[in-house]
Amino acid sequence: MQLSGLGYFGLRTRRVNEWRTFAEDVLGLSAQTTEDGLRLRADDRAWRIALHESDSEEFGYVGWEVPGPAELAAAAEELARAGVDVSHADDRTLRERDVLGLFHIEDPNGVRVEIFHGARTATTPFVSPTGARFVTGEQGLGHVVFSVDDYAATLLFYTELLGFRLSDFCDLGRKRIAFLHTNPRHHSLAFAGLVIEPERKPRKDVEPGELFHFMLEADTLDTVGYAYDRCQAGAAPLALTIGRHSNDRMLSFYAVTPSGFEVEYGYGAITVEDPWTATRVDGTSLWGHHRPARAAAPAGQEGTKA
């Protein structure tokens, strides 16, 4: 199976109005009202992020793109042969996602994974409220990072069943993060889990399927700097100060979203070209990415379990 990249994701939230302000004023995305919330644009696609009005703060689904209908059918058949429960979308879901074809499966952590083709390109140009432009195209939307319960099973699921390729690993004491790619972006998916000897029982210190953060990559460093200034001025709480990652060399900062998880806003990541040899680093950053001394947490901060 060959995925093209991260196409979209959806969130359930009680804070649709706060998300509109955050998306437009902090991130520079454009927002459009829908029947049950908002859709956010970052490029020429009709939408990239969906916010669904809800009574909770939860991650809803993630959409991975394939080139066309033949690849979608082949992917569904391949997964079914491997014993994966494949559910094909009805007409309503196709209209909601605005795609031509889609099926969904569930990963080992309960994350709803949608495989799709035929996303709609908008007929009007993307116009950012802040003048931002984002690196998308052949690299997809950006990346998402989750916590996982069974690290080994999750790694097997995404690499053996969905065809993700390893970029590198990061060790953080008892935890390990795997970074995976599907296109030239260094990683479109990462997940963190406890690396534990078989005879030991894992501690339930994280919720499987909880979203740590998503990432948007701007096309200029100044765009990141302006957004950083807006957060320092109070537009959104800073989660991590500006720093540079040790693996993809992204220069970025992290802000707290209205749902309580984080968004990484960065510039200048390296790209990968297969064949690629995965290596391992200790620690996620070369410098920076420090917790602010007086980081403000939004009221009612919750995790985002799928």
UniProtKB/TrEMBL annotation:
The keyword 4Fe-4S does not apply. Residues 5-118, 140-268 form the VOC domain. Keywords: Aromatic hydrocarbons catabolism, Dioxygenase, Iron, Metal-binding, Oxidoreductase. The keyword Protease does not apply. InterPro entries: Glyas_Bleomycin-R_OHBP_Dase (IPR029068), Glyas_Fos-R_dOase_dom (IPR004360), Glyoxalase_1_CS (IPR018146), VOC_core (IPR037523), Xdiol_ring_cleave_dOase_1/2 (IPR000486). Belongs to the extradiol ring-cleavage dioxygenase family. This is 2,3-dihydroxybiphenyl 1,2-dioxygenase. It comes from Streptomyces gelaticus.
